[in-house]
Task: structure prediction
Amino acid sequence: MKNILIALLWAAIAFQAAFADKVADILPQARDLVAEKQYLAAYQLVEKADPKHRDLEVVLFKFDLLTNYYASRIGADMFALRDLAEQERIEDVRGAEGTFDMFHFETEKTLKRMLEEHPGEVRIHRALGLYYYKQPGMHPDAKTDDGKSYADAAFEHLDKAVKSGLEEDATRFALGHLELARGNYAKSIPHFEKCIELNPGYAAAHFNLASARFAVGSNRDALGSAKKALELYAEPDLKSDAASLAGDILAELGEDKDALRHYELADQIRPDAYPNIKSLLRMRLRQEAAESDATALRLMALDLENPTVFGDLEEVYMATQRTGRLIRLYSTRLESPQDGQSPVATGNMHFYLARLHIESEPQLARQHFNSAKSCFEKKFQADHPVFKIIEAQLSEESSDP
Result:
């Protein structure tokens, strides 16, 4: 019996050695395939060698491949992969329609098992941290299997990886972003700076560093980071956000002409973005630009039935001490034919015009509140909150001496 056990032990050792040699041969091939954008072929190669996710190096390779290069994803553990042509980017095909090969990889369960088997391996902490960080359900109420929030679990594992000596740009970025989300702006800055040191072309790190520096009042340094993000971003939406952030910083620095130039650039890149038009309007009003009212009309046109739009217009014109211009704008619009315009849109203009007249011309305000009420009655039920607001305003007007 003793001889049989010894033989079985040696057989197991021989199998493990052969398996390790096989993995050692396959992983370089798989990495070459990834470099050639042959993501499906790379995964099929390692999956065939280790279908039960037993080898640490293969598991870590699978994690990085699936989470960085998936074509589509269902939940946390179902990934679709495809091979790309030389000119294609994963960002361009991700989420596109088509038939893909799907793979089930129990990410959290597999990584936790690996951590039990290799408790001192910091790369597993990195992988687990990034897994929790990237979960779409990462909000204050989302929990891991251990009852921790995704954000706390992500930070715990990533922080352990960094403190154990692992330095990598994605890890540092995630730590910085987690601190930023907690409002720990000063603490986020060193992580973003280290991320950029490791990868100077990491556009999102420059953008978030700009946001953090702006939040702590380091405006000149923040401006440099925002402009670098603007230079590096390729995606139009992100490039527009960077231009707008640079505009915000320049406005805070009092450099209005340069701020306006950046707001105009943001608007040019993404013409129908509500925040961009609002920022552009504010700066044009500050500079008394002739295009101000046209910009306001563009903002209104995005959603004439949404009272938030009119509330924002009121806030911007009041903040820049240009309420007279807004009164003229609404009055001119209401004097023009309303054919085809929703009663709600017309009601909104009357309602917010009334608000602008409350202090200076209460009788005129009353007229506009009544006109707003008549318009809203064509679309809203009697219990709509706006009627209570109007009645309260009219009652207050009647009680004034």
About this structure: The radius of gyration is 29 Å. The CA atoms of residues 212 and 273 lie 23 Å apart. Residues 7-19 have pLDDT under 50 and may be disordered.
